[in-house]
From TrEMBL, chain A:
This is Sigma-70 family RNA polymerase sigma factor. Keywords: DNA-binding, Sigma factor, Transcription, Transcription regulation. Residues 23-90 form the RNA polymerase sigma-70 region domain. Pfam families: Sigma70_r2. InterPro entries: RNA_pol_sigma-70-like, RNA_pol_sigma-70_dom, RNA_pol_sigma70_r2, RNA_pol_sigma_r2, WH-like_DNA-bd_sf. NCBIfam families: sigma70-ECF.
Automatic annotation (TrEMBL), chain B:
It comes from the Bacteria. This is Uncharacterized protein.
Length: 186, 99
C-alpha cells in the first residue's frame, strides 16, 4: 500500500499518470457498485469523477493521511456521494413542475443583486493568457511544487516564478477591479 | 519585487499561509483600521475562490480525457478477447490431422 506522503508526491508531481493508474484500478469497482445500486455506467463516471476531485483536494493538503488503499478510500467517497445522489433523486417531484413553482425556482436562480457577488470572476481567470492561467492553477489549485512549476514553464528560478505568480495575480485583480468599477458606474 | 506585488504577498501570507498567533492578531487590528487593506484582502480572497473553481474545472476536463482513454482501451481489450475466444472455438472444432 502506498504511503500518504508518496501518493501525495506522485499526485502533485505526476498528476496525469497517477490519476490514470488510479482510474484504471478503481473505476471498474465503482461502475459495478453504482450499477448494482440503481445507477448507470454514466452515473458511475460522474460520481467517480466527483469522488476523484474530492480525493485530489484532500490529498493535496499537507495533513492528508491515507488509512486504507486508494481504491477503498475512493469507494468510501463514492458510496457517500451516490447515497446522497439517490436521496436527491428520490425527492424530485414525479409530476411536471407547476408554472408557479417553476417561476419561483427561476427567481431563486437569479444572480445576487449585489454586483460584487455576481461578478463572474471565473471568466476573468479564463481570459488570462494561457501561461498565467497555467501558473496560477498549478500553484493555487494543483499545489504543484514551485520548483517544478518553474522548470516546466521555463522560469530561471523559484524566485522568478514567484514574482511572475504575483504579477499574474495582479493582472487578475486588475481585470476584476475594472469590471467592478464598470458595474458600479452603470 | 514591486511594492504592489509585496502587498499581494503579504495578504496571501495572511489568507493562505501560516501566520503566527501574534501576526494574526495584528492582522485583525489592521483590517479593522485600514479599510483599503480590508477591501484588498476581500478581493484577493475572491480571486483564490475563482482560481479554486477554475482548477476544479481543469481537473474535471483532465478526468474526462482519462475516462475516454480508459473506455477506448477497454473496448479494444474486449474486442481482442472476443476475437481470440472465437478463433479458439473455430480451431478447436477442426479435426486434427491424422497421425
Amino acid at each position: 500500500m502506498e504511503t500518504s506522503a508518496s501518493l501525495r508526491h506522485a499526485l502533485l508531481t505526476q498528476r496525469e499518470p497517477t490519476l490514470t493508474r488510479i482510474y484504471q484500478r478503481t473505476f471498474p469497482l465503482v461502475r459495478r457498485y453504482v450499477q448494482q445500486h440503481g445507477g448507470s455506467a454514466s452515473d458511475a463516471k460522474d460520481v467517480f469523477q466527483d469522488a476523484l476531485i474530492v480525493f485530489y483536494e484532500k490529498a493535496a493538503a499537507e495533513s492528508f493521511v491515507l488509512s486504507s488503499s486508494v481504491s477503498t478510500y475512493l469507494l468510501g467517497i463514492v458510496r457517500n456521494l451516490w447515497r446522497r445522489e439517490l436521496n436527491r433523486r428520490s425527492q424530485l417531484p414525479l409530476t411536471d413542475l407547476s408554472e408557479e413553482h417553476a417561476q419561483h425556482m427561476a427567481e431563486e436562480a437569479e444572480p445576487a443583486a449585489d454586483g460584487r457577488d455576481s461578478l463572474p470572476v471565473l471568466d476573468y481567470v479564463a481570459q488570462l493568457g494561457e501561461r498565467c492561467q497555467n501558473l496560477l492553477l498549478a500553484f493555487y489549485y494543483f499545489q504543484q511544487p514551485l520548483e517544478q512549476i518553474a522548470g516546466r514553464l521555463n522560469y530561471g528560478s523559484i524566485r522568478s516564478a514567484t514574482v511572475q505568480k504575483f504579477k499574474c495575480l495582479e493582472r487578475l485583480r486588475k481585470s476584476v477591479r475594472t469590471a467592478v468599477a464598470h458595474a458600479v458606474a452603470h | 519585487m514591486r511594492p504592489a506585488l509585496e502587498r499581494l504577498q503579504l495578504i496571501e501570507h495572511h489568507l493562505l499561509g501560516r501566520p503566527t498567533a501574534a501576526e494574526a492578531a495584528q492582522w485583525r487590528v489592521q483590517l479593522l483600521t485600514d479599510a483599503e487593506l480590508a477591501a484588498d484582502a476581500a478581493t484577493q480572497q475572491q480571486l483564490y475562490q475563482a482560481l479554486h473553481e477554475a482548477g476544479r474545472r481543469q481537473l474535471r476536463h483532465e478526468l474526462e480525457l482519462i475516462h475516454r482513454r480508459f473506455e477506448r482501451q477497454t473496448r479494444r481489450r474486449d474486442w481482442l478477447q472476443t476475437t481470440t475466444n472465437h478463433l479458439r472455438r473455430v480451431f478447436s472444432r477442426q479435426p486434427r490431422a491424422s497421425q
